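Quarterly update from the structural biology core.
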Amino acid sequence: MTENISQNDRILPTPQKKMDSGLAVAEAWHYVVPFAVFLIGTQAESYAVDADGKTIGETYAAIYCLKIIAVVIALGFCRKSLADLVPIPTAKVIVVAILTGAFVTAFWIGLDGLYPGLPESMGKRSAFDPTSLGGLWRTLFMIFRGLGLVVVVPIIEELFTRDFLLRFVSGTDWQAIPAWKFNTTAAFVSTAIFVSGHPEWLPALLCGMLWIWLLGWSKSVSAVVISHAVANLGLGLYSVITGDWHYL
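Predicted structure, tokenized:
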């Protein structure tokens, strides 16, 4: 009897470990899929051009709207990740989040032209001017652009870069690690991934560092989402008011 128990003890942990690993992968998809869908949709936008390389307005607008719809659907299927957005931050944290978001808008615009840019081969903004669209297409695109800019992007980008990645890199048992318990390596990887997705590398670097600080200080993923939303809203309003679309 003792020998049989000993053998079972040696056999049982193996499938248990596989189940744990499989669960961790399944959980990871809740963060990865919406972000991946967004990136695929963004890549698809580059095909909305004619033979001369000029953007075809209606085609670009249609692809963008479909992209946002696809991401929202992906979020619906992967809604488990949204649980990381609760509880709602305190009033003090919300105020700080709003102020940091406004600060990001200010230096993102203020630093423009003061640092060397990246080669276009490494990515560039679409800088699409929605006023080139007519009637219904313009209205539809502006609605979806606003939804994407202020709601969808802040949620999926923060859940992936400053929630999932920070925990995933910080330890193998990443599900048990709060996002604000990240280590230095995780902070570096998360910030590097964030910067790589933005042609404005210097503001993105400063922004990534600021939001890493905000997460550590507030202990709230929602606080960073709010700050991101405010920053994007500021850039969006600036673009609408000035007609300068190269930040979007």
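The chain has one domain: 2-242.
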